Amino acid sequence: MCNGDMYEKVKAEESYWNLEDGKYINITMEKAYEAIWKCLIIGDDEIDPKKVDNAKRVDEFDIETQGHLKQVFYE
């Protein structure tokens, strides 16, 4: 069960769901901006973003996203 507020914003028009094998629901959500989320739902266990393998360098993101990433990485 998934219940609660999202940790970050998603693009609803770019997100979708489908039913697989008549018993699994796959939900695909497009992030509103590129960033590493600490969790999906507020209150869930948080991951350590410093341990996430992200091959993209921070300077490859747009300025706003760079700011968000720096907050996450250096707080």
Describe this structure in words.
This protein is of the alpha+beta class. It has one domain. The chain has 1 helix and 2 strands. Strands 1-2 form a two-stranded antiparallel ribbon. The chain is globular and about 45 Å long. The N and C termini lie far apart (31 Å).
Defining traits:
75 residues, alpha+beta, two-stranded antiparallel sheet, 2 strands, 16% helix
Percent range of helical residues: 10-25%
Number of strands: 2
Ranges with pLDDT <50 over ≥5 residues? none
Radius of gyration: 14 Å
Query: What general outline do the C-alpha atoms trace?
Result: globular
Biggest sheet, in brief? 2 strands, antiparallel
Order of helices and strands: EEH
**Separation, N- and C-terminal Cα atoms:** 31 Å
Strand order of the largest sheet: 1-2
Structural class: alpha+beta
Strand content: 25-35%
Query: How many distinct helices?
Result: 1
Mean pLDDT: 81
* Quaternary structure of the protein: single chain
